[in-house]
Design brief:
Length: 402
């Protein structure tokens, strides 16, 4: 067994009829921060799915392109791939519940351990220390495994203390984290769980947590059983919440909150507003347009609590597939770690609560054009829209802008 670099893997994929290079082989910005993953391709006894190298290459190529666009070209994802490795037991011995809170963690641990041991058994000199993290991509389907994708660590196996995976034969330590996917995984799902690893853990908290409600996800674990009922915090406006909006289109772009957590929102593009300095007026450009002078407005309410304002327009591939367009207003609390017990580290203010699942959450000059925050008494008003940008007024309720 040999580890194939993405270019070597492409050469094999071309033999399967790929007409074009995948997008992740395009030239990368010289100053991008690159993270390199080893993708373990896992097969199981008794499965007959025809998952080709070309399919895998294309799927991870789209993830790389997505990361590059979401980070304004400052982050790059590199992937090396193993050959298909046969794990020792059938998929039924590793399968789990689709509900996060009901997952048998011992099965997740066993799957990861058997996969990394399969590499050591091949005795090809693979060195885990060359990589920033590991991805396990299974030939199995979601129906066979139980869940379409998950993050082993930091995630399903915890994040409040370090978890070390070590191969039995050579004692190699797996670095940083492990994301796990079935062959059904959408690009948005791949990004969602890879982002958990990229964010890591700081002070016992995941930097990039899931933004759907875990308690509701236990009741509605899949799209077929009503997963959208768990999207009470960010709806379909961020793949850390929804994974995807529709199965056959690209994932939506990430919010300014998730970009902040990943370190992808340039500091000079964030306009901080002190509530004591209002009224103010600011022009807010589309979040996806890195050339905009202001990409997000942050209003501090307390040391760890703030309001974020962003402008989502159909600019680029990913924000073109959003459920709507306009200005999103979020309330964030950095003291909240995860979306449990009705609490969330960030939550949308819903401009149109009569529309289900936050599909109408965006404010606009032609609809609901203002929000008064009950905590601070601040009013955020959309004064006008010019092309894809909005003039935003921030003042005390009833105060006139100057």
């Amino acid at each position: 067994m040999a580890i194939l670099s993405r270019r070597q893997f492409l050469a094999g994929a071309l033999a399967f009829g790929m007409a074009q290079f995948p997008s992740f082989l395009l030239a990368e910005p010289a100053d991008c921060r690159k993270r390199r993953a080893l993708v373990i391709l896992a097969d199981f006894p008794g499965l007959s799915h025809a998952v080709t190298e070309g399919f895998v290459t294309e799927r991870f190529g789209k993830v790389s392109t997505y990361i590059r666009e979401m980070s304004y070209g400052t982050a790059c994802a590199g992937f090396d791939f193993t050959n298909w490795l046969l794990l020792p037991e059938p998929i039924s011995n590793y399968s789990i519940s689709p509900a996060n809170l009901k997952v048998d963690k011992s099965r997740v641990f066993k799957l990861i351990q058997d996969a990394i041991d399969a590499i050591d058994a091949a005795d090809d000199g693979c060195t885990f220390s060359q990589y920033d993290y590991v991805v396990l991509f299974m030939r199995a389907s979601m129906q066979e495994y139980g869940m379409v994708g998950l993050c082993g660590y930091p995630g399903m196996l915890g994040w409040k203390s370090g978890i070390v995976f070590r191969t039995r034969r050579r004692g190699q330590v797996v670095p940083n984290g492990v994301a796990i996917f079935t062959s059904n995984a959408h690009v948005g799902t791949l990004f969602h769980d890879i982002a958990h690893v990229w964010g890591g853990v700081v002070n016992g908290k995941r930097v990039v947590p899931c933004l759907y409600d875990h308690d509701l996800q236990e009741r509605y674990p899949t799209r077929q059983t009503g997963f959208e009922h768990s999207l009470i915090n960010m709806g379909y406006w961020d793949p850390m919440s929804c994974h995807l909006y529709q199965p056959n289109i690209p994932p939506p772009g990430i919010s300014s909150w998730t970009r902040l957590r990943l370190g992808w929102l340039p500091r000079e593009k964030i306009r901080d507003v002190d509530p004591s300095s209002v009224p103010v007026e600011l022009w807010l450009g589309p979040l996806t347009d890195g050339n905009s002078e202001i990409l997000a407005i942050r209003i501090r309410l307390a040391a760890n609590r703030y309001i974020l304002v962003e402008n989502r327009q159909p600019v680029g591939i990913y924000d073109s597939v959003l459920p709507g367009h306009g200005v999103l207003i979020m309330k964030a609390d950095d003291d909240i770690a995860e979306c449990r017990n009705g609490r969330s580290p960030v939550r949308l203010v819903d401009a149109n609560p009569d529309v289900r699942f936050l599909l109408g959450a965006a404010f606009d000059v032609q609809g609901r054009d203002r929000y008064v925050d009950p905590e601070s008494g601040l009013e955020i008003r959309l004064i006008e829209k010019m092309r894809n940008s909005y003039r935003i007024g921030i003042s005390k309720a009833g105060q006139t802008e100057t």
